[in-house]
Fold this protein.
Amino acid sequence: MPRRKNQGWRKLGSLAAKLTFSLTFTVLLLEIGLRVMGLRPITRTVEYHDPLLLHPEPFVAEAQRNGWLHWPRETRRVDGIREHARGYIDIRTNNVSCREDADTGIEKQPGTIRILVLGDSHTDGVCFNDESYPNLLEQEWNRVAGDDRFEIINAGFGPSSPYQQLWAFQQVYSRFRPDHLVVAWYAGNDLVELLRTDERVHLKRDGDRFVHEAPTRATDDTRTKPSAWGTLKAGLRDHLSLYHALVQIRGLRKLVRSAEADEYRERLEQAILENPGVVWQGMNQSYYFTHHAEAFPQAMQMMDHILHEYRRYAEEQGIGFTLLVIPTLRQIHPDSDAASLKKIQETLELSDADLQWDEKVCDALVALGRSEGVLTIDLREVLRKSRADSPQDAFYYQFDHHLNVAGNRVIARALEAALVGKFESQRD
């Protein structure tokens, strides 16, 4: 009797082993086939960067190596941009990681007026370097300048939070000794970016003040804490092309796609699949603050701290300081891409009132700058006027909701009008 029982267990074990082998072999074949077809896991891969391109000055190299700045001297082509006249753009950085075609020296040349511009991806630019608003302004001013030369450095870095930009300025770009400082804040996501802590330097409250904090590597308040099942699915997502393929099947998406068993995250991930540009350029922040309105005052306190640090530097150095507040596409072209916007709104279950967060953030940032006595340019007014004057013109790309070349031109003109009196003698 024991022998028969043992034989039964052996048969069952043999059957289980065969099934496991068959399933593993099938998954392996599917995985190989999907990769041959060009489908890759969803996870972001870490790109190789040539360390020989790092700046010879240690304090610049450290910032480049740690990801506080772009990697230097790299060119990346982005194809398929049908809304750009060339159909593509080249993202190019120089020796100090700025969006400039020519190298930038730490020490400015004699007879040069140096203006430093900081901001996120809208300043960084979804355009060629010479099409960004800092470079357009530089071209115009040098065209009409006298003996002096203007050097307007585009130190935009996207994606990044306003504090990451301040940190890069404190660690690197303040040593470039600019004659004027321009900081651009984007109303669509800058506040929610400040609240992320897991993969970036960030601010931490210590009593009644904010202090610098390194990345925590732990899930922060802007993300949902994953369950054990969610952690397993996240691993499959990061390493299997099969996971990526299953994501495309609508009926399986709810089971497979979400790395967290959470309704909030599930809706967000669905919206990202439908249109990531719409989500990351405004809708995500509106969605977050709709569910976490208590975080808005905290984010504004951080912005106040950041503004104070910039203003303190400018006053100590005796230089000018200008703040730009960049609105979202939805604020300037509310009827553009309406079908996609409506679909994302429905997916995220946002009311029309919830979509007013962009305006509320703009109002708060402009009020903050002006209350501190900082020259603050509300680009809503400028872009809306330009739209009224030229209704046929679009100032943002529909494909990802970043400023396009025409939008950069409008901002360059607005910045020129605001600063012209400050450098009049050099431009005569």
Residues 257-261 have pLDDT under 50 and may be disordered. Residues 2-36 form the longest helix (35 residues). The beta strands are 75-79, 88-92, 112-118, 149-154, 180-186, 202-206, 209-213, 320-326, 375-378. Residues 104 and 221 are 38 Å apart (CA to CA).
